[in-house]
Amino acid sequence: MLKLTYFNVRGRCFPLLLLLVDSGAAFDYEEVTTTDWIDMKRSDIIAPPEYPFLGLPTLEYELDGMREILGETGAIGKFLEGRLRPEGSAERSLHLRARLEMVREASAFFVNRIFQLSSDPDWLAPPSRDTVKAQVTQFLGALEYNLAALASDIIPAPSDQLLAATASAFAALWFSGDLFPSLRAQMTAGGLYPTCARLVETVEQRSRIRKWLEEGDIKQKAWTVRPSGQMPHIQEQANRYD
C-alpha cells in the first residue's frame, strides 16, 4: 500500500509521481486544496505523526504490517527509489550514488528556489523576469555539465528503473521550459543543452509516463498554489516577454 498526499499542483510532488507512475506500482494519490489545508491548520490537525514535519508531501506505506508515514520530498524520493527497485539490480558505487544525489538535490533546490519567487505577482515580468532567467540559465549550464558526465547512469534505457535524480532533473527542465520557451528551444541535439534534451525526451517516451502525461493533462496543471504559478499566467507572461 502506497498513498501519496500533496496539494493540487505539480510542485515538489511532480518527481515523486513520475517515479510511481513509471514503476507501474499501485498507489493512491490524494490532493489537498489550499482552502482545506488552511482549515486543517486552524484545527490543529497538522502535526506528527500524520504530518512528520508539518507539511506536504507525505507518503503512507506499510512496513512489517505497521502503518508508516514519511515526509519531505527528498526522503520520499529516495525511499521510493529503493522500494520500487527491481529485484536483482546491481548495487551502485558510493561515488556514483553521491553524484546522482548531487543532481537530485541541486534540481530540487533550484525548483524550490524559483517557486519562492512566485510570491511576487510580477515575478515573470521585467525587470524581475531577467533575474529569474539568469538564475535558470545558470542552473541549466551546470545541469548540462553534470548530466553529460553521468549520462550512461542517469539517462535510463527502456528496461532501467527511473531514478530519483532523473525524475528531479526532468521536473526542473520541464519547469524551466514552461517559464522560458526560448530555453526549451535550446534543449536540442544542436542547442546549448543537448544532454538535458536527451534526458527529457527519454523520460517523456517511457510508456507509462507518456500515457500519464497525455491522459492526465499534466502540462496544464499549476506549478504552485499561488495565482502567479498557474499555467495561464506563466504562458501569458511567456507570450509577452520571452
**Helix share of residues?**
40-55%
How many extended strands?
4
Describe the strand arrangement of the main beta sheet, using strand numbers: 2-1-3-4
Distance between the termini: 44 Å
Radius of gyration: 18 Å
Shape: globular
Order of helices and strands: EHEHEEHHHHHHHH
User: CATH class of the largest domain, anyone?
Assistant: Mainly Alpha
Please mark out the parts with pLDDT under 50 across 5 or more consecutive residues, or reply none.
none
Q: Quickly give the CATH architecture of the largest domain.
A: Up-down Bundle
How many domain regions? 2
Could you give a short account of the major beta sheet? Answer: 4 strands, mixed
Share in β-strands: 5-15%
Q: Could you characterize the architecture of this molecule?
A:
The protein is an alpha+beta fold. Helices cover 55% and strands 10% of the residues. The protein contains ten helices and four strands, in the order E-H-E-H-E-E-H-H-H-H-H-H-H-H. The protein has helices spanning 14-23, 34-42, 73-83, 94-117, 128-154, 164-179, 181-184, 194-204, 207-215, 231-241; strands spanning 2-7, 28-32, 58-63, 66-71.
Would you summarize the structure shown here?
With 242 residues, this protein is an alpha+beta fold. It has helices spanning 14-23, 34-42, 73-83, 94-117, 128-154, 164-179, 181-184, 194-204, 207-215, 231-241, and strands spanning 2-7, 28-32, 58-63, 66-71. The protein folds into 2 domains: 2-83, 3-Layer(aba) Sandwich (Glutaredoxin); 94-241, Up-down Bundle (Glutathione S-transferase Yfyf (Class Pi), Chain A, domain 2), CATH 1.20.1050.
